[in-house]
C-alpha cells in the first residue's frame, strides 16, 4: 500500500532543469496555444446543437456555468503549473501530491482524453474539408470518407491530417507554435466577420422564451458544451518548453480561457438572436446562419475558420498527449523507449510517431461517435484531481514556493472539485461504463508492469 501512495520530490527550481526539450515559448505563444486548443468544434458546431436541443437562448448561461467550472480548475492548474512544472500536467501534479496510483490513473485518463479528442476532431475536420473540396469541384469518393464499419474503405482526410500534424510536431515546438499562431489568426478573423454581420440582424424576439427547457436544460447544455473548453489544460504540458514557466504558464492558461469564454458567450448570444434557436440543430450552424443572412462569402470565410480552428485543436491536443506520454515514460510507468528526446529536433519523435499512427487508425477506420463523450468525463476527472491536489499540497507542503497562488483557497479549489463532480453526474450512464472499462484496463497495466518498473521502485 505504501508503494501505491509514494510521491515524487518537488523541485522548486524545476524551471532551471535541462530536460532535452527546447525552451522557446513565451506568454503570447502559450496564450495562443490555449486559444488554439479551445476554439474549435465547440463554437462552430456544438453551440447550435446545444441551443436547439438543450438550452435555447439560455445557451449563454450554459457557457457561463461551464466557464466558471473551468475557471476554478484553471486557477488550480495555474498554481500547480508554476509551483511543480513538468510536461506531465495533471499527472505530474498528482504524482507530487496524491501518490503514484492516483497519478497513473490520471495519466492514463489524460492519454484517453487527448487521443480520443484528436481522433474525434479529425473526423469533424474531414467533413469540413470535404465540403470545401466539393465547393471547388474536387469532392472525394464516398469510400474515402468513411471507415470499413460504415461501408467505406477509410476516412482518408481524417487519417491524413493526424499524420501531417505529427510530422509538424517532430520538426520542433517553435515551428508548431508558429503554425498554430497563423491558424488562430484565421479563425479569429472568421469569428470577427460573423460578429460584424450578425450584430446588425439581431431580433430580440428570438430570445423569448429565454429558458424554454428550464434550468435542467441549461445544465444539460453546460455538460454538452463543456467539450468546447477542453484544451486549456494542454497549455500546462508546455512547462518544459516555456522560457519562464513560473510566470508565463499562469498567463497562458488564464488569459486564453478568459478570451475564449467571452467569445463563446458573444457568439452564442448572436446566434440565438439572429434566428430561432430551434433552427440551429445543423452541422455547421455559424456558417449556416451567415448563409441565411445572404452573405455567401462570409459563410465561406467562416467555413475556412472552422477548418483552421479544428486544425489547431488537433495540433495542441496532440502536442499535449505526447508530453504527458513522455512524462509517464520518464517515470518508468510506460516503456523507457518512449522516454527519449531526439537531440537534433529536441522533440519526443518516438512518442509522436506511435501515438500519431494509432490516432490516424482510429480516425480513419472507426466511427468514433458517442465515444467522444469520454473526452468530457476524462477532462472533468483531471480537473477534479487538480483542484484536490491544490488542497492536499497546501497541507503537505505549506512552504513550497508558489509563484502563483489560487485566490480564496480553499474555497476556489473546493468549488472547482464540486462543479466538476456536478457536471460529471450530468453525463450519460453509458459514458461512465466506457470510462470504467478504460480505467480497468489501466489498472491491469499498472499492477502487471508499471508498479514494478517505476523509477521510485528502483525500476525493477
From TrEMBL:
It is found in: Membrane. One of its GO terms (cellular component) is membrane. It is a multi-pass membrane protein. GO terms for molecular function: amino acid transmembrane transporter activity. Keywords: Membrane, Transmembrane, Transmembrane helix, Transport. It comes from the Bacteria. The chain crosses the membrane at residues 30-54, 60-80, 101-128, 153-172, 184-201, 213-232, 253-277, 297-321, 349-368, 374-396, 408-425, 431-449. Pfam families: AA_permease_2 (PF13520). Gene3D superfamilies: Amino acid/polyamine transporter I. The keyword Transmembrane helix applies. PANTHER family: CATIONIC AMINO ACID TRANSPORTER 4, INNER MEMBRANE TRANSPORTER YGJI-RELATED. This is Amino acid permease. It comes from Candidatus Thiodictyon syntrophicum. The lineage of its organism: Bacteria, Pseudomonadati, Pseudomonadota, Gammaproteobacteria, Chromatiales.
